Amino acid sequence: ETGVTQSPTHLIKTRGQQVTLRCSSQSGHNTVSWYQQALGQGPQFIFQYYREEENGRGNFPPRFSGLQFPNYSSELNVNALELDDSALYLCASSRDLYEQYFGPGTRLTVT
Amino acid sequence: AQRVTQPEKLLSVFKGAPVELKCNYSYSGSPELFWYVQYSRQRLQLLLRHISRESIKGFTADLNKGETSFHLKKPFAQEEDSAMYYCALAGSGGSYIPTFGRGTSLIVHP
Known about the structure:
The complex is a heterodimer of chains A (about 110) and B (about 110). Chain A is mainly beta. Chain A has no helices and eleven strands.
């Protein structure tokens, strides 16, 4: 069984740019959630997709958007990057709503 | 609004000592509560879920609705328990929005 993978591992962007982060779900999982984790904080929920439909959204502005594909892989897109967007972005997949399997994360630095 | 509070940023104990990591929550409905653990250089993983009422790696957690708490306990800490522990809450039914606490770093000294 393949675990959750994320790409890239880390990247550096400039304020105002756009970024796309990718996640490949664990085999058999139809739900994916994205989190932002700032240094010294717990993961903060961005949104969740279930069978390609958004199934819940946290307190993030519309410039954070996502997609889930038929093979249940997923993307997180962030437009107009701000310095405060610098964080670790985690993807988690699950078969049900609750038992989530996390990826290793993508470290985003905005300069 | 739902909220999870982990009052201790760091908990330091000696091997064999009892451990209690505190978690308090605020939620108007019936919550689903979890503990996640992240060992050094590993990814975040589910430790236990209140609804399953299991003991995992010697850890237990009891939901106390009166005190709105879900403390994680282990009677005898081991060095391999050293890790970052996160308490999390998910609202039951309807829209799914999970909330994590800021985490408690547990260090178990030999």
